[in-house]
Amino acid sequence: MINFLDISYLRIGNEKQVKVYQILTANKVLEKLAAYKPILVGTVPINIDIENSDLDIICDVSDRDEFVDQLTAVFGSHQDFFVSESPKFDAIKVTFKIEDFEIEIFGQNKPTTQQNAYLHMLIEYKLLLEKGEEFRQEIISLKKQGYKTEPAFAKLLGIEGNAYEELLKLDA
After folding, report:
1. pTM value?
2. Pair 102, 80: CB distance under 8 Å
3. Of 34, 45, 133, 171, which is most buried by a Cβ count within 10 Å?
4. What is the CATH number of domain 7-169?
5. Does residue 126 register a pLDDT over 60?
């Protein structure tokens, strides 16, 4: 099992993962977020990303104003810097670009290892290991057709209902 809490696994990954590792380390992105226990999540870590996939980083944030101030101070000069709120998740979202990668930082008042994005990624990773390369390619194909990650998994697994909620039940 990969330790997703330490991005060093990306150094020996595919070409895109190696590039992501270089960008994140050269720009000290995770170091600058260290106080918020950041975790890179989403499709890139588990090798199901497509061309326009962004880099998702989740953070544990108790003081939203301080978080926004901090991220504005350290990333505000980057291209397309934007701060928004996600009322559905009671979270702050900060986006910007470094080189060709859009980075999305998601701050929620919840330990990062308990956030849904991290839990989904772990479940999806286990499924990819179990189901093999053909399944991985089918997920990528659905994503290229416009499916979000969790709905793509749900479709291939024949899961009905809310894909985001139902996937979490697979880990129970």
Report:
1. 0.95
2. yes
3. 45
4. 3.30.460.10
5. yes
